[in-house]
């Protein structure tokens, strides 16, 4: 029996590699498993303390499977964030398994030696599994749509790649899984472009490639057109995504994305600079140097992919697939956030394919390249572990965001809110002041700023901010209610009562206004009326501590 050369390894990765990778991933994500709800988690309709909408309502939304997933979590775990994080991590592990299968098939289509396919696919799946840029999609509960949509998209794509000629049964499975991906998040429609690209890229004949997969592609094209029309209509006038985003046109958004796409690529190659809120400014025109350079580099990369299609089949395919998969958020439909780490999760297949092509050019598999790959995995896992530590508290996450971009007014606003929740009132007020200086406006900011000032013992400054809030939005019952509370603390009882009466007229369903007015009436010696207000507050919110304490004091008089 011939002995294996000392500098080579087995033809395929050993079985123990898969549980080892899963264990390393679990350790890398461990700091985030006990993370609290953050940012958009706190405004999700499914995760509100007062209750979740019914499942039937969730299923009628634009992302029925995404909301149904969170709804099921809510039924199983209540408002415990930990188990929800575990579900997202489990989906991420499954996605890595699907990525492995997809990459093996793509290696086969690209003519990679059969003995190398297993190792290359394993390395690519490992990069995807352990890369820190994936953390926002996995560790941020509001990004469940990213991991869920990729799960169904990769499953659909794996079935699509499973046969050179697609029959009826396989076509039906592809269409079903594709539909489930689209029901998780709208960007999944971009997978259709990758399927068409696959049919025409790897075969000798474009016509033969399309014919062989027409059974699946025909219904997907029809469904894709209908879905694209629905999405186009849905985003037509929205303030956060679509043509209603203030101050951004399709052309200036595209100009911005010429920069953003390359920032995504850079984060993938050099895994650093992740941020829960990049706060990237939009390009003003196409004349900006970075926009021109980004556009030129994009055209050059696309031309090179086509020119060297045969020699660098996987790399060319990967680049074009990446562009297609990132296009829903990085083309001409404006989104209020120019850049978000989680958008790289769905499009990562393309960049992973490029990485596999680069590794293919090395002497693979041998001891040195396998050792180098293992070193890369360990480094990625370490960076992922470090990034996941930021999810342990809202203050830590937003402090990291501000450190990465000190000019981001929204990140400073969120940091101030987190600091106030932790009781750091003076520091919170300073952050609110800086957020306001950098351009964060609105009555909500002023009210939150005033609460921090009041907590820090600066009642006069709090009153001034609240009067600004009322001037900015005369119909803000929250601003008037809080102003009444601050005025009462300064002994200005008549003025406080006037503001609280007006707040109740605007919205009688806000429990804190009744509790504040109860305190004012109690201070005026009108304990019977005060007791009535406290009882009303408790009818609206039985857990209101101010009303509970106030009612006890009123009844004791």
Topology:
Layout: H1 17-29, H2 55-59, H3 64-77, H4 81-109, H5 114-130, H6 135-139, H7 144-161, H8 168-184, H9 191-201, H10 206-212, H11 214-234, H12 250-269, H13 289-307, H14 313-326, H15 343-360, H16 367-389, H17 394-404, H18 409-421, H19 425-437, H20 443-455, H21 459-472, H22 477-489, H23 493-506, H24 511-523, H25 527-540, H26 545-556
Helix pairs in contact: 1-16, 3-7, 3-8, 4-5, 4-7, 5-15, 5-16, 7-8, 8-11, 9-10, 9-14, 12-13, 13-14, 14-15, 17-18, 18-19, 18-20, 19-20, 20-21, 20-22, 21-22, 22-23, 22-24, 23-24, 24-25, 24-26, 25-26
Key phrases:
557 residues, 68% helix, disordered N terminus
Query: Which oligomerization state do the chains in this entry correspond to?
Result: single chain
Specify the overall morphology: elongated
Helix content: 55-70%
Percentage of residues in strands: under 5%
Tell me about the biggest sheet?
none
Structural class: mainly alpha
